[in-house]
């Protein structure tokens, strides 16, 4: 595992920002860190980036414990904070050159590195523009390029799509997929849940400083799939169909809405077939019969309790 966290805790006086959090992230994965504001996502990322010291517990990046050898960890980590700070009086190429020099990259190599990164994030045409003239989406891409100047193995991206318009979010999502194909491991925090489901290989849901669920997207989704919502549309008699369905095996609540019935269901495929055939045998004229698809927002709402710090 390229990132490993064991019983990590961070307190600020009486406030516990991170509470005995443990997780593992495999090399080459995109791990989505999901949670409400104040859940401990940013604090965890800052500890992994060696910007904060934990109160207790341990964390490793690329095999190095973050508090014992922070300089070694920084060689492996590119950190993109949730708040984008720039030197507005610098040009884009000067901005990247400044950060490359901060990592001790020789002057002879910095121009090529900047050119390559600007091409990667599609900002080559802006290399001579002043940073303060860039759009929000362009600044986010520049910040991502900045985190890549030393070619790190791990990217820690705190809300990288925050405040972006739909087109800029799509561009950011495609860029992160490309970075994964280049071998980068990415830990990304966000509350834009559907987008995480599209790009991430694994998801961790954190609340009140604790990890309440973790696993692959498929594993996390399967935890809520055991209780499904059926949507049945009928030509007529929706109220009677709802009452009839409540008596069927596996059906919980069933509610009629105009000419449709929504019902909770626990069971397998054979049970679904029984529900449908029972409705038809009872004379109900079914127009459509389907399971409502669960998404990552459903998972988040079911797993978390809405408790904020």
In terms of topology, how is this protein built?
Layout: E1 3-12, E2 15-25, E3 30-34, H1 41-48, E4 56-61, E5 64-65, H2 70-76, E6 77-80, H3 92-102, H4 107-120, H5 136-147, E7 154-158, H6 166-181, E8 185-190, H7 193-199, E9 202-207, E10 210-216, H8 217-225, E11 227-234, H9 238-246, E12 251-257, E13 260-266, H10 269-281, E14 286-292, H11 296-303
Parallel strand pairs: 3-8, 3-9, 6-7, 7-8
Antiparallel strand pairs: 1-2, 1-4, 4-5, 9-10, 11-13, 11-14, 12-13
Describe the protein's architecture and organization.
- A six-stranded mixed sheet has the order 6-7-8-3-9-10, with helices on both faces. The chain has a four-stranded antiparallel sheet with strand order 2-1-4-5, covered by helices on one side. It has a four-stranded antiparallel sheet with strand order 12-13-11-14, with helices on one face.
- It is 37% helix and 29% strand.
- Helix 8 crosses helix 11.
- The protein has helices spanning 41-48, 70-76, 92-102, 107-120, 136-147, 166-181, 193-199, 217-225, 238-246, 269-281, 296-303; strands at residues 3-12, 15-25, 30-34, 56-61, 64-65, 77-80, 154-158, 185-190, 202-207, 210-216, 227-234, 251-257, 260-266, 286-292.
- It is of the alpha/beta class.
- The protein has two domains: 3-222, Rossmann fold (3-Layer(aba) Sandwich), CATH 3.40.50; 226-299, Alpha-Beta Plaits, CATH 3.30.70.100.
Write a brief caption for the model.
Helices cover 37% and strands 29% of the residues.
Measure the end-to-end span: 30 Å
Q: What is the CATH superfamily of the largest domain?
A: P-loop containing nucleotide triphosphate hydrolases
Oligomer: single chain
Helix content: 25-40%
Structural class: alpha/beta
The average pLDDT value, as a whole number, equals: 86
Q: Architecture of the largest domain, according to CATH?
A: 3-Layer(aba) Sandwich
Q: Which descriptor suits the 3D outline?
A: elongated
- Estimated radius of gyration: 24 Å
How many distinct helices?
A: 11
CATH class of the largest domain: Alpha Beta
Give the SSE order as H and E letters.
Answer: EEEHEEHEHHHEHEHEEHEHEEHEH
Residue fraction in strands:
25-35%
The CATH topology name of the largest domain reads Rossmann fold
- Largest beta sheet: strand ordering: 6-7-8-3-9-10
Uncertain stretches: none
Count of beta strands: 14
How many structural domains? 2
Note the main sheet. Answer: 6 strands, mixed
């Amino acid at each position: 595992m390229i990132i490993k966290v064991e019983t990590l805790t961070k307190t600020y006086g009486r406030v516990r920002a991170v509470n005995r959090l443990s997780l593992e992230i495999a090399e080459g994965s995109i791990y989505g860190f999901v949670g409400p504001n104040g859940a401990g996502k940013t604090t965890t990322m800052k500890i992994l980036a060696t910007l904060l010291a934990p109160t207790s517990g341990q964390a490793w990046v690329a095999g190095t414990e973050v508090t014992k050898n922070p300089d070694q960890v920084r060689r492996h980590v590119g950190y993109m904070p949730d708040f984008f700070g720039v030197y507005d009086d610098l040009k884009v190429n000067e901005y990247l050159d400044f950060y490359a020099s901060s990592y001790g990259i020789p002057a002879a190599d910095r121009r090529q590195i900047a050119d390559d990164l600007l091409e990667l994030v599609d900002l080559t045409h802006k290399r001579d523009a002043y940073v303060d003239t860039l759009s929000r989406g362009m600044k986010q891409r520049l910040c991502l390029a900045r985190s890549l100047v030393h070619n790190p193995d791990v990217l820690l991206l705190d809300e990288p799509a925050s405040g972006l318009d739909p087109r800029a979010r799509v561009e950011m999502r495609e860029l992160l997929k490309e970075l994964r194909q280049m071998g980068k491991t990415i830990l990304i925090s966000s509350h834009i849940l559907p987008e995480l489901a599209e790009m991430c290989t694994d998801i961790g849901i954190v609340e009140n400083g604790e990890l309440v669920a973790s696993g692959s997207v498929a594993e996390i989704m399967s935890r809520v799939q055991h209780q499904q919502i059926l949507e049945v549309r009928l030509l007529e008699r929706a109220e009677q169909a709802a009452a009839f369905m409540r008596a069927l095996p596996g059906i919980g609540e069933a509610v009629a809405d105009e000419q449709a019935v929504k019902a909770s269901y626990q069971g397998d495929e054979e049970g679904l077939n029984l529900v449908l055939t029972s409705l038809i045998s009872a004379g109900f004229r079914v127009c459509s019969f389907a399971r409502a698809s669960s998404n990552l927002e459903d998972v988040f709402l079911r797993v978390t309790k809405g408790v904020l710090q």
